[in-house]
Amino acid sequence: PQTSGDAIRQRFLDFYAARGHKVLPSASLVPDDPTVLLTIAGMLQFKPIFLGKVPREVPSAATSQKCIRTNDIENVGRTSRHQTFFEMLGNFSFGDYFKKEAIKWAWELSTSEYGLPADRLWISVYEDDDETFALWHDELGIPKERIKRLGEDDNFWTSGVTGPCGPCSELYYDFHPERGTSDVDLGDDTRFIEFYNLVFMQYNKKDDGSLEPLKQKNIDTGLGLERMARILQKVPNNYETDLIFPILEKAAELANVSYALADDSTKTKLKIIGDHMRAVVYLISDGVNPSNIGRGYVVRRLIRRVVRTGRLLGVKGDGMGDLQGAFLPILAKKVIELSTNIDADVKTRSSRILEELRREELRFVLTLERGEKLLEQMLADALLNIQGTETAPCLSGKDAFILYDTYGFPVEITKEVAEERGISIDMNSFDIEMEKQRQLSQAAHDTVKLAVENGANHAEDIPDTEFLGYNTLHSKAVVE
Ligand code: ATP
Ligand code: MG
Ligand code: MG
Ligand code: MG
């Protein structure tokens, strides 16, 4: 149908191709850019062009870009609109057209091409960007009350701490126009969904935070494919679109539950599984294997969260054959099946992906069961410790560290389990333990290096314990 995820993607690309854009393939999830860990937006592959470092090959382009946003991990399943893995449709101008065309085409795409009713659309503009306000209001006739001026957090877009940036203007869809036009908050997830962001890229943000005007004025846009699919398919969230739902159904089948009849907490778990499975399949396909540092840790953390979440639902592999009870490869097969029009390479890499997942799952399960028992004990103690006092229950950083270090529990998982019981974690002391460990392993590193130089040891003996910390996992400075 016209509204399948595949059709929506194709219609976007055809629409812009008909307006002179060159359709280009998605770039890898691993960016060629030291300022961001993973590809967070369609513009990344064009950054050197925007900055004037390499000449443009075409005046304008359109893509469907695979993206990962680790800053949205906590939002997965909690909001109806965030995944960690999603596809961003984008049209880009490299010093070719600017605001006027970008706005006109975005409007035409949304209303004529996708058929959204004009009176359901709301617009945000950067607070002092009168020119953009006028283009929406005077040229396209959008009533003033449906154009909101928002501040830097929402309407000034930066790809990283430094780099190309500029004011932006966003399109929102209104699910509840009957709620009226007074006291409206476009951030209200129960009423609106932001689906298209138009960035008027005209500055380079420097190390000292200053904005240097770019030689050319560029356009960078992003339209969330799953969000448009959710609107057009009239389902309550991105996860129930044809792009993701088959994975949730497969997980439900393995857990022996029905998605439709499940309670909210079960649905959330199925959404987490569906999202994270997509993320890890595409990340491994692009060459990121689970490890304890950087991107590899993102994969490891996502995989471990799926394993744990699946176990909470009673998901089990068949326990026989070469999967040895692993269920991630079963779900991954479904993700791979759906990958054809997203990234044709995934299918050709499927045996490597399935094997990597199987290995990592089995490795984690070995320690998980012991770790789970210990965590239960620690949480019970934390509650016992404060009995009869006014103190709030708290798990010590030492305990969280033991779970991390010996049992392979990502601290985020420990935190999640503890929070489910109303128990917090002493993250300060956890960080101190982490730092101690880092220094120890650095010392071990140095010793091993010396030993290797003396020919007495093998490089493989170097412990793989370096950890760069939670914060470095975030795509820095993405304006949320
Ligand atoms: P939000 O405010 O909803 O978090 P955003 O402002 O962070 O979105 P942008 O950086 O403007 O998003 O990205 C452009 C588009 O990409 C968004 O308008 C949306 O359609 C889509 N998008 C962004 N983040 C996600 C996500 N986590 N999951 C799905 N789609 C997303
Ligand atoms: Mg936005
Ligand atoms: Mg936003
Ligand atoms: Mg965001």
UniProtKB/TrEMBL annotation:
Compartments it resides in: Plastid, Chloroplast; Mitochondrion
Domain Alanyl-transfer RNA synthetases family profile: 3-480
Family according to the record: Belongs to the class-II aminoacyl-tRNA synthetase family. Alax-L subfamily.
Domain notes from UniProt: Consists of three domains; the N-terminal catalytic domain, the editing domain and the C-terminal C-Ala domain. The editing domain removes incorrectly charged amino acids, while the C-Ala domain, along with tRNA(Ala), serves as a bridge to cooperatively bring together the editing and aminoacylation centers thus stimulating deacylation of misacylated tRNAs.
Subunit structure: Monomer.
Job of this protein: Catalyzes the attachment of alanine to tRNA(Ala) in a two-step reaction: alanine is first activated by ATP to form Ala-AMP and then transferred to the acceptor end of tRNA(Ala). Also edits incorrectly charged tRNA(Ala) via its editing domain.
Protein name in the entry: Probable alanine--tRNA ligase, chloroplastic
Residue numbers of the full-length protein present here: 89 to 568 of 987
